[in-house]
Amino acid sequence: MSDEQAPSFWTPAISKTAGPLYLAIADALQADIQTGRLAIGARLPPQRALAEALGIDFTTVTRAYAEARKRGLVEGRVGQGTYISQAQQIPSRPRPQRPIPSGLVDMSMNLPPRFTDEALSARMWRGIGGLENSDGLDLLMRYQHPGGAARDREAGAAWLSKRLPGINAERILVCPGAQGALLAVMSMLAAPGDVVCAETLTYPGFLSVASHLRLAIAAVETDDKGLIPDAFERVCIGRRPKALYCNPTISNPTTVTMPLSRRMAILDIAARYDVAIIEDDAYGALPTAPVTPLAAIAPERVYHIAGLAKCLSPALRIAYLAVPDLRSAARLAGIIRATSAMASPLSAAIASRWIEDGTAEAVLDAIRREAGERQAIAAKLLPAANLQADPEGFHLWLRLTSAWTRSEFMARLRSAGIGVVASDAFALGPAPEAVRLGLGAAEDHEHLRQSLGIMADLLAETPAASTMVI
Predict the structure, then answer these.
(1) How many whole angstroms separate alpha carbon 101 and alpha carbon 108?
(2) Which residues, 6+ apart, have CB-to-CB distance to 289 below 8 Å?
(3) pLDDT tens digits, residue range 216-243?
(4) Cβ count within 10 A of residue 214
(5) Spatial distance between the Cα atoms of 448 and 452, rounded to a whole number of angstroms
(6) For the chain, which domains are there?
(7) Stated pTM of the model
Protein backbone atom coordinates (compact mmCIF):
# COMPACT_ATOMS: atom_id res chain seq x y z
CA MET A 1 0.00 0.00 0.00
CA SER A 2 1.42 3.42 -0.95
CA ASP A 3 1.21 6.54 1.20
CA GLU A 4 -1.73 7.70 -0.93
CA GLN A 5 -3.57 4.43 -0.23
CA ALA A 6 -2.94 4.49 3.52
CA PRO A 7 -5.59 5.85 5.88
CA SER A 8 -5.39 9.66 5.78
CA PHE A 9 -5.41 9.82 9.59
CA TRP A 10 -5.04 6.65 11.63
CA THR A 11 -6.92 6.91 14.93
CA PRO A 12 -6.71 3.92 17.28
CA ALA A 13 -9.73 2.59 19.15
CA ILE A 14 -8.59 2.58 22.77
CA SER A 15 -10.06 2.61 26.25
CA LYS A 16 -8.74 5.35 28.53
CA THR A 17 -9.42 3.19 31.60
CA ALA A 18 -7.68 -0.06 30.60
CA GLY A 19 -4.09 0.42 31.78
CA PRO A 20 -1.40 2.84 30.55
CA LEU A 21 -2.56 4.77 27.49
CA TYR A 22 0.77 4.57 25.69
CA LEU A 23 0.61 0.77 25.81
CA ALA A 24 -3.01 0.80 24.63
CA ILE A 25 -1.99 2.89 21.59
CA ALA A 26 0.94 0.59 20.80
CA ASP A 27 -1.30 -2.48 21.19
CA ALA A 28 -3.91 -0.98 18.87
CA LEU A 29 -1.19 -0.20 16.33
CA GLN A 30 0.04 -3.78 16.41
CA ALA A 31 -3.50 -5.15 16.11
CA ASP A 32 -4.26 -2.93 13.09
CA ILE A 33 -1.09 -4.13 11.37
CA GLN A 34 -2.07 -7.74 12.02
CA THR A 35 -5.58 -7.24 10.64
CA GLY A 36 -4.36 -5.34 7.57
CA ARG A 37 -5.88 -1.99 8.47
CA LEU A 38 -2.34 -0.59 8.46
CA ALA A 39 -0.03 -1.92 5.77
CA ILE A 40 3.77 -2.13 5.64
CA GLY A 41 5.06 1.31 4.64
CA ALA A 42 1.93 3.22 5.68
CA ARG A 43 2.57 6.62 7.24
CA LEU A 44 1.33 7.33 10.77
CA PRO A 45 -0.10 10.70 11.81
CA PRO A 46 2.26 13.22 13.45
CA GLN A 47 2.46 12.70 17.19
CA ARG A 48 1.01 16.09 18.11
CA ALA A 49 -1.89 15.69 15.68
CA LEU A 50 -2.74 12.25 17.09
CA ALA A 51 -2.57 13.59 20.66
CA GLU A 52 -5.04 16.33 19.77
CA ALA A 53 -7.37 13.88 18.02
CA LEU A 54 -7.41 11.57 21.05
CA GLY A 55 -7.57 14.39 23.60
CA ILE A 56 -4.48 13.20 25.45
CA ASP A 57 -1.06 14.54 26.34
CA PHE A 58 1.57 14.78 23.59
CA THR A 59 4.13 12.88 25.69
CA THR A 60 1.78 9.89 25.89
CA VAL A 61 1.79 9.56 22.10
CA THR A 62 5.58 10.01 22.10
CA ARG A 63 5.91 7.10 24.52
CA ALA A 64 3.51 5.03 22.41
CA TYR A 65 5.55 5.58 19.24
CA ALA A 66 8.74 4.79 21.16
CA GLU A 67 7.17 1.55 22.39
CA ALA A 68 6.16 0.69 18.83
CA ARG A 69 9.72 1.31 17.63
CA LYS A 70 11.04 -0.94 20.40
CA ARG A 71 8.76 -3.72 19.15
CA GLY A 72 10.00 -3.18 15.60
CA LEU A 73 6.59 -2.06 14.37
CA VAL A 74 7.55 1.39 13.06
CA GLU A 75 10.54 3.32 11.80
CA GLY A 76 11.28 7.03 11.66
CA ARG A 77 12.35 8.77 8.46
CA VAL A 78 14.22 12.05 8.90
CA GLY A 79 12.08 14.95 7.77
CA GLN A 80 9.22 12.68 6.68
CA GLY A 81 7.60 11.17 9.77
CA THR A 82 6.87 7.73 11.21
CA TYR A 83 6.04 4.72 9.01
CA ILE A 84 5.06 1.09 9.50
CA SER A 85 8.41 -0.69 9.34
CA GLN A 86 9.41 -2.28 6.04
CA ALA A 87 11.69 -4.74 7.83
CA GLN A 88 9.29 -6.27 10.34
CA GLN A 89 6.78 -8.95 9.53
CA ILE A 90 3.99 -9.87 11.92
CA PRO A 91 2.76 -13.32 11.03
CA SER A 92 -0.93 -13.93 10.99
CA ARG A 93 -1.51 -16.67 13.50
CA PRO A 94 -4.74 -18.59 13.03
CA ARG A 95 -6.70 -19.04 16.21
CA PRO A 96 -6.32 -22.65 17.34
CA GLN A 97 -9.50 -24.63 17.39
CA ARG A 98 -10.11 -26.89 20.35
CA PRO A 99 -11.78 -30.24 19.73
CA ILE A 100 -15.42 -30.17 20.74
CA PRO A 101 -17.28 -33.48 21.23
CA SER A 102 -20.10 -33.96 18.73
CA GLY A 103 -19.56 -30.38 17.59
CA LEU A 104 -20.88 -29.17 20.96
CA VAL A 105 -19.26 -28.46 24.31
CA ASP A 106 -18.28 -29.88 27.69
CA MET A 107 -19.80 -27.45 30.19
CA SER A 108 -18.72 -29.32 33.31
CA MET A 109 -15.56 -27.23 33.71
CA ASN A 110 -16.15 -23.75 35.09
CA LEU A 111 -13.67 -21.75 33.01
CA PRO A 112 -13.57 -18.02 32.37
CA PRO A 113 -14.85 -17.37 28.85
CA ARG A 114 -12.27 -16.78 26.12
CA PHE A 115 -12.34 -13.29 24.67
CA THR A 116 -11.43 -12.44 21.08
CA ASP A 117 -9.33 -9.29 21.59
CA GLU A 118 -6.16 -10.10 19.62
CA ALA A 119 -4.37 -6.94 20.79
CA LEU A 120 -4.99 -7.89 24.43
CA SER A 121 -3.81 -11.44 23.77
CA ALA A 122 -0.60 -10.06 22.26
CA ARG A 123 -0.19 -7.78 25.25
CA MET A 124 -0.44 -10.74 27.65
CA TRP A 125 2.25 -12.67 25.77
CA ARG A 126 4.46 -9.59 25.53
CA GLY A 127 4.30 -9.20 29.29
CA ILE A 128 5.48 -12.79 29.69
CA GLY A 129 8.33 -12.27 27.24
CA GLY A 130 9.37 -9.07 28.98
CA LEU A 131 10.27 -10.99 32.14
CA GLU A 132 13.54 -12.03 30.50
CA ASN A 133 14.77 -8.44 30.48
CA SER A 134 13.42 -7.41 33.89
CA ASP A 135 13.98 -10.56 35.98
CA GLY A 136 16.65 -12.44 34.10
CA LEU A 137 17.90 -15.92 34.85
CA ASP A 138 17.37 -15.59 38.61
CA LEU A 139 13.63 -16.02 38.06
CA LEU A 140 14.24 -19.46 36.53
CA MET A 141 17.17 -20.66 38.62
CA ARG A 142 16.42 -19.61 42.21
CA TYR A 143 14.05 -20.73 44.96
CA GLN A 144 11.88 -18.11 46.66
CA HIS A 145 10.31 -17.57 50.06
CA PRO A 146 7.37 -19.99 50.52
CA GLY A 147 4.97 -17.08 50.95
CA GLY A 148 6.15 -15.38 47.78
CA ALA A 149 8.73 -12.77 46.84
CA ALA A 150 8.22 -9.23 48.16
CA ARG A 151 7.34 -7.88 44.70
CA ASP A 152 4.70 -10.57 44.19
CA ARG A 153 3.14 -9.97 47.59
CA GLU A 154 3.01 -6.25 46.84
CA ALA A 155 1.31 -6.99 43.53
CA GLY A 156 -1.20 -9.18 45.35
CA ALA A 157 -1.95 -6.40 47.82
CA ALA A 158 -2.43 -3.97 44.94
CA TRP A 159 -4.80 -6.40 43.19
CA LEU A 160 -6.89 -6.82 46.35
CA SER A 161 -6.80 -3.20 47.50
CA LYS A 162 -10.11 -2.27 45.84
CA ARG A 163 -11.89 -5.05 47.72
CA LEU A 164 -9.79 -5.00 50.90
CA PRO A 165 -8.86 -1.35 51.60
CA GLY A 166 -5.74 -1.01 53.70
CA ILE A 167 -4.38 -4.50 52.95
CA ASN A 168 -0.58 -4.58 52.90
CA ALA A 169 2.01 -6.96 51.51
CA GLU A 170 2.94 -8.29 54.98
CA ARG A 171 -0.53 -9.85 55.28
CA ILE A 172 -0.44 -11.41 51.81
CA LEU A 173 0.88 -14.87 50.95
CA VAL A 174 1.31 -16.06 47.37
CA CYS A 175 -0.05 -19.61 47.18
CA PRO A 176 0.01 -22.38 44.54
CA GLY A 177 -3.60 -21.83 43.52
CA ALA A 178 -6.73 -21.50 45.62
CA GLN A 179 -6.61 -25.20 46.45
CA GLY A 180 -3.10 -24.80 47.87
CA ALA A 181 -4.25 -21.85 49.96
CA LEU A 182 -7.26 -23.79 51.20
CA LEU A 183 -5.10 -26.75 52.20
CA ALA A 184 -2.71 -24.50 54.14
CA VAL A 185 -5.42 -22.63 56.03
CA MET A 186 -7.47 -25.69 56.94
CA SER A 187 -4.32 -27.51 58.06
CA MET A 188 -3.57 -24.65 60.45
CA LEU A 189 -7.09 -24.14 61.81
CA ALA A 190 -8.23 -27.72 62.38
CA ALA A 191 -6.82 -31.12 63.41
CA PRO A 192 -8.13 -34.58 62.43
CA GLY A 193 -11.55 -35.10 63.97
CA ASP A 194 -12.31 -31.39 64.36
CA VAL A 195 -15.49 -29.94 62.90
CA VAL A 196 -15.59 -27.37 60.10
CA CYS A 197 -18.82 -26.15 58.57
CA ALA A 198 -19.97 -25.03 55.12
CA GLU A 199 -23.07 -24.34 53.04
CA THR A 200 -25.24 -27.36 52.25
CA LEU A 201 -24.12 -26.95 48.61
CA THR A 202 -20.43 -26.19 48.57
CA TYR A 203 -17.25 -26.28 46.49
CA PRO A 204 -16.02 -29.86 45.86
CA GLY A 205 -12.41 -28.76 46.38
CA PHE A 206 -13.25 -27.92 49.99
CA LEU A 207 -14.78 -31.36 50.45
CA SER A 208 -11.61 -32.96 49.07
CA VAL A 209 -9.34 -31.06 51.46
CA ALA A 210 -11.57 -31.79 54.45
CA SER A 211 -11.56 -35.49 53.60
CA HIS A 212 -7.77 -35.49 53.15
CA LEU A 213 -7.31 -33.86 56.57
CA ARG A 214 -9.88 -36.21 58.16
CA LEU A 215 -12.12 -33.37 59.31
CA ALA A 216 -15.82 -33.66 60.12
CA ILE A 217 -18.09 -31.38 58.10
CA ALA A 218 -21.26 -29.81 59.48
CA ALA A 219 -23.75 -28.51 56.92
CA VAL A 220 -25.26 -25.04 57.38
CA GLU A 221 -28.62 -24.48 55.73
CA THR A 222 -28.96 -21.78 53.09
CA ASP A 223 -31.69 -19.84 51.31
CA ASP A 224 -31.78 -17.43 48.39
CA LYS A 225 -29.51 -15.03 50.33
CA GLY A 226 -26.86 -17.59 51.27
CA LEU A 227 -26.04 -18.88 54.75
CA ILE A 228 -28.91 -18.66 57.23
CA PRO A 229 -27.62 -17.02 60.45
CA ASP A 230 -29.86 -19.03 62.80
CA ALA A 231 -28.72 -22.27 61.16
CA PHE A 232 -25.08 -21.23 61.55
CA GLU A 233 -25.63 -20.45 65.22
CA ARG A 234 -27.26 -23.84 65.81
CA VAL A 235 -24.17 -25.53 64.36
CA CYS A 236 -21.93 -23.35 66.55
CA ILE A 237 -23.86 -24.36 69.66
CA GLY A 238 -24.20 -28.04 68.84
CA ARG A 239 -20.94 -28.87 67.04
CA ARG A 240 -18.39 -26.21 68.11
CA PRO A 241 -16.76 -25.86 64.69
CA LYS A 242 -13.21 -24.63 64.32
CA ALA A 243 -13.97 -22.80 61.08
CA LEU A 244 -16.65 -21.85 58.59
CA TYR A 245 -15.83 -22.19 54.88
CA CYS A 246 -17.96 -20.08 52.56
CA ASN A 247 -18.09 -18.69 49.04
CA PRO A 248 -20.23 -15.58 49.60
CA THR A 249 -19.94 -13.89 46.17
CA ILE A 250 -21.42 -15.66 43.12
CA SER A 251 -21.41 -18.91 45.04
CA ASN A 252 -20.26 -22.12 43.39
CA PRO A 253 -22.59 -23.78 42.47
CA THR A 254 -25.75 -21.79 43.25
CA THR A 255 -24.56 -18.32 42.00
CA VAL A 256 -26.02 -16.68 45.14
CA THR A 257 -24.31 -13.56 46.52
CA MET A 258 -24.78 -12.97 50.23
CA PRO A 259 -26.04 -9.42 50.97
CA LEU A 260 -24.18 -7.18 53.38
CA SER A 261 -26.74 -7.52 56.18
CA ARG A 262 -26.44 -11.31 56.07
CA ARG A 263 -22.64 -11.07 56.08
CA MET A 264 -22.72 -8.86 59.16
CA ALA A 265 -24.97 -11.35 60.96
CA ILE A 266 -22.69 -14.29 60.14
CA LEU A 267 -19.63 -12.36 61.34
CA ASP A 268 -21.37 -11.44 64.60
CA ILE A 269 -22.14 -15.10 65.32
CA ALA A 270 -18.60 -16.17 64.39
CA ALA A 271 -17.19 -13.61 66.84
CA ARG A 272 -19.45 -14.75 69.69
CA TYR A 273 -18.50 -18.41 69.24
CA ASP A 274 -14.88 -17.76 68.23
CA VAL A 275 -15.13 -19.40 64.80
CA ALA A 276 -12.57 -18.55 62.14
CA ILE A 277 -13.90 -17.90 58.64
CA ILE A 278 -12.35 -19.01 55.35
CA GLU A 279 -13.70 -16.72 52.62
CA ASP A 280 -13.21 -18.23 49.18
CA ASP A 281 -13.48 -15.20 46.90
CA ALA A 282 -12.88 -17.00 43.61
CA TYR A 283 -15.42 -14.83 41.78
CA GLY A 284 -15.07 -11.68 43.89
CA ALA A 285 -13.25 -9.69 41.20
CA LEU A 286 -16.07 -10.13 38.65
CA PRO A 287 -18.79 -7.82 40.04
CA THR A 288 -18.33 -4.18 39.04
CA ALA A 289 -20.02 -3.10 42.31
CA PRO A 290 -19.16 -5.93 44.73
CA VAL A 291 -20.64 -6.46 48.17
CA THR A 292 -18.03 -5.75 50.84
CA PRO A 293 -15.99 -8.93 51.50
CA LEU A 294 -16.06 -10.52 54.94
CA ALA A 295 -12.32 -9.88 55.27
CA ALA A 296 -12.84 -6.14 54.81
CA ILE A 297 -15.35 -6.10 57.69
CA ALA A 298 -13.56 -8.42 60.13
CA PRO A 299 -9.93 -8.84 58.99
CA GLU A 300 -8.97 -10.20 62.41
CA ARG A 301 -11.15 -13.30 61.89
CA VAL A 302 -11.21 -13.97 58.15
CA TYR A 303 -8.76 -15.80 55.89
CA HIS A 304 -9.48 -14.42 52.41
CA ILE A 305 -8.53 -16.55 49.37
CA ALA A 306 -8.46 -14.69 46.06
CA GLY A 307 -7.47 -17.01 43.22
CA LEU A 308 -6.68 -15.73 39.74
CA ALA A 309 -8.08 -18.74 37.86
CA LYS A 310 -11.59 -17.32 37.39
CA CYS A 311 -10.76 -13.65 36.85
CA LEU A 312 -7.45 -13.73 34.98
CA SER A 313 -6.03 -17.09 33.86
CA PRO A 314 -6.52 -20.70 35.01
CA ALA A 315 -3.00 -21.48 33.77
CA LEU A 316 -1.24 -19.32 36.36
CA ARG A 317 -2.29 -21.40 39.41
CA ILE A 318 -1.75 -18.43 41.70
CA ALA A 319 -3.90 -17.30 44.62
CA TYR A 320 -3.41 -14.45 47.06
CA LEU A 321 -4.18 -15.31 50.68
CA ALA A 322 -4.94 -12.36 52.95
CA VAL A 323 -4.44 -13.33 56.60
CA PRO A 324 -5.37 -11.65 59.90
CA ASP A 325 -1.87 -10.95 61.24
CA LEU A 326 1.87 -11.54 60.88
CA ARG A 327 1.85 -14.53 63.23
CA SER A 328 -0.63 -16.44 61.09
CA ALA A 329 1.33 -15.39 57.98
CA ALA A 330 4.48 -16.98 59.40
CA ARG A 331 2.68 -20.19 60.38
CA LEU A 332 1.03 -20.51 56.98
CA ALA A 333 4.32 -19.90 55.18
CA GLY A 334 5.69 -22.90 57.07
CA ILE A 335 2.76 -25.05 55.96
CA ILE A 336 3.20 -23.96 52.33
CA ARG A 337 6.89 -24.89 52.59
CA ALA A 338 5.96 -28.33 53.92
CA THR A 339 3.20 -29.08 51.40
CA SER A 340 4.37 -27.48 48.15
CA ALA A 341 7.64 -25.61 48.86
CA MET A 342 6.32 -22.45 47.15
CA ALA A 343 4.06 -21.16 44.42
CA SER A 344 5.63 -21.16 40.96
CA PRO A 345 7.88 -18.08 40.84
CA LEU A 346 7.37 -17.85 37.08
CA SER A 347 3.57 -17.83 37.38
CA ALA A 348 3.75 -15.34 40.24
CA ALA A 349 6.03 -13.07 38.20
CA ILE A 350 3.66 -13.17 35.22
CA ALA A 351 0.74 -12.23 37.47
CA SER A 352 2.75 -9.40 39.03
CA ARG A 353 3.80 -8.03 35.63
CA TRP A 354 0.20 -8.07 34.38
CA ILE A 355 -1.06 -6.36 37.55
CA GLU A 356 1.66 -3.70 37.47
CA ASP A 357 1.25 -2.69 33.81
CA GLY A 358 -2.56 -2.78 33.74
CA THR A 359 -2.87 -5.95 31.65
CA ALA A 360 -4.66 -7.80 34.46
CA GLU A 361 -7.37 -5.14 34.71
CA ALA A 362 -7.80 -5.19 30.92
CA VAL A 363 -8.16 -9.00 30.92
CA LEU A 364 -10.68 -8.81 33.77
CA ASP A 365 -12.73 -6.28 31.79
CA ALA A 366 -12.61 -8.53 28.70
CA ILE A 367 -13.77 -11.55 30.74
CA ARG A 368 -16.60 -9.48 32.24
CA ARG A 369 -17.81 -8.36 28.81
CA GLU A 370 -17.70 -11.86 27.34
CA ALA A 371 -19.40 -13.35 30.42
CA GLY A 372 -22.17 -10.77 30.12
CA GLU A 373 -22.75 -11.66 26.47
CA ARG A 374 -22.93 -15.36 27.30
CA GLN A 375 -25.28 -14.78 30.20
CA ALA A 376 -27.60 -12.89 27.85
CA ILE A 377 -27.60 -15.87 25.47
CA ALA A 378 -28.45 -18.24 28.33
CA ALA A 379 -31.22 -15.99 29.63
CA LYS A 380 -32.78 -15.92 26.16
CA LEU A 381 -32.66 -19.67 25.57
CA LEU A 382 -33.22 -21.32 28.95
CA PRO A 383 -36.56 -21.13 30.80
CA ALA A 384 -36.43 -18.54 33.59
CA ALA A 385 -38.28 -20.86 35.96
CA ASN A 386 -35.37 -23.32 35.88
CA LEU A 387 -32.51 -20.84 35.77
CA GLN A 388 -30.51 -19.41 38.66
CA ALA A 389 -27.69 -17.10 37.59
CA ASP A 390 -25.70 -14.00 38.42
CA PRO A 391 -25.41 -11.73 35.35
CA GLU A 392 -21.75 -11.02 36.17
CA GLY A 393 -20.73 -14.66 36.63
CA PHE A 394 -20.15 -17.38 34.08
CA HIS A 395 -21.76 -20.44 35.60
CA LEU A 396 -25.44 -21.32 35.98
CA TRP A 397 -27.48 -23.40 38.40
CA LEU A 398 -30.19 -25.20 36.47
CA ARG A 399 -33.09 -26.59 38.51
CA LEU A 400 -34.85 -29.45 36.74
CA THR A 401 -38.56 -29.84 36.20
CA SER A 402 -40.42 -32.50 38.15
CA ALA A 403 -40.33 -34.81 35.12
CA TRP A 404 -36.54 -35.06 35.09
CA THR A 405 -34.05 -36.57 37.48
CA ARG A 406 -30.51 -35.24 37.30
CA SER A 407 -29.15 -38.63 36.22
CA GLU A 408 -31.61 -38.87 33.31
CA PHE A 409 -30.94 -35.29 32.24
CA MET A 410 -27.17 -35.76 32.34
CA ALA A 411 -27.42 -39.00 30.36
CA ARG A 412 -29.38 -37.27 27.58
CA LEU A 413 -26.90 -34.41 27.46
CA ARG A 414 -23.93 -36.76 27.44
CA SER A 415 -25.32 -38.57 24.42
CA ALA A 416 -25.37 -35.19 22.64
CA GLY A 417 -21.76 -34.44 23.62
CA ILE A 418 -22.61 -31.98 26.41
CA GLY A 419 -21.15 -32.30 29.89
CA VAL A 420 -22.59 -30.74 33.07
CA VAL A 421 -22.09 -31.42 36.79
CA ALA A 422 -24.83 -32.96 38.92
CA SER A 423 -25.71 -31.46 42.29
CA ASP A 424 -24.28 -34.55 44.05
CA ALA A 425 -20.73 -33.18 43.64
CA PHE A 426 -21.60 -30.19 45.87
CA ALA A 427 -24.12 -31.60 48.35
CA LEU A 428 -23.48 -32.17 52.05
CA GLY A 429 -26.91 -33.75 52.41
CA PRO A 430 -29.69 -34.88 50.05
CA ALA A 431 -28.88 -33.55 46.58
CA PRO A 432 -31.53 -31.49 44.78
CA GLU A 433 -32.55 -32.20 41.20
CA ALA A 434 -30.23 -29.64 39.63
CA VAL A 435 -27.05 -29.34 37.59
CA ARG A 436 -24.30 -26.74 37.25
CA LEU A 437 -23.09 -25.67 33.83
CA GLY A 438 -20.19 -23.42 32.88
CA LEU A 439 -20.64 -20.93 30.07
CA GLY A 440 -16.92 -20.33 29.58
CA ALA A 441 -15.92 -23.62 27.99
CA ALA A 442 -17.81 -23.05 24.73
CA GLU A 443 -15.47 -22.14 21.87
CA ASP A 444 -17.80 -19.41 20.64
CA HIS A 445 -21.33 -18.11 20.90
CA GLU A 446 -22.67 -20.42 18.22
CA HIS A 447 -21.56 -23.58 20.04
CA LEU A 448 -23.02 -22.13 23.23
CA ARG A 449 -26.37 -21.50 21.55
CA GLN A 450 -26.45 -25.03 20.14
CA SER A 451 -25.74 -26.59 23.52
CA LEU A 452 -28.17 -24.44 25.48
CA GLY A 453 -30.82 -24.99 22.80
CA ILE A 454 -30.57 -28.75 23.31
CA MET A 455 -30.98 -28.25 27.07
CA ALA A 456 -34.03 -26.05 26.54
CA ASP A 457 -35.58 -28.64 24.22
CA LEU A 458 -35.03 -31.40 26.78
CA LEU A 459 -36.57 -29.33 29.59
CA ALA A 460 -39.65 -28.80 27.43
CA GLU A 461 -40.08 -32.57 27.03
CA THR A 462 -40.41 -35.56 29.31
CA PRO A 463 -37.66 -38.22 29.52
CA ALA A 464 -39.94 -40.73 27.79
CA ALA A 465 -40.58 -38.37 24.88
CA SER A 466 -36.87 -37.77 24.29
CA THR A 467 -35.59 -41.34 24.55
CA MET A 468 -34.27 -43.24 21.53
CA VAL A 469 -34.41 -46.66 23.22
CA ILE A 470 -36.62 -49.19 21.38
Answers:
(1) 13
(2) none
(3) 999 999 999 999 999 999 999 999 999 9
(4) 11
(5) 6
(6) 1-92 (1.10.10.10), 101-123+360-466 (3.90.1150.10), 143-357 (3.40.640.10)
(7) 0.80
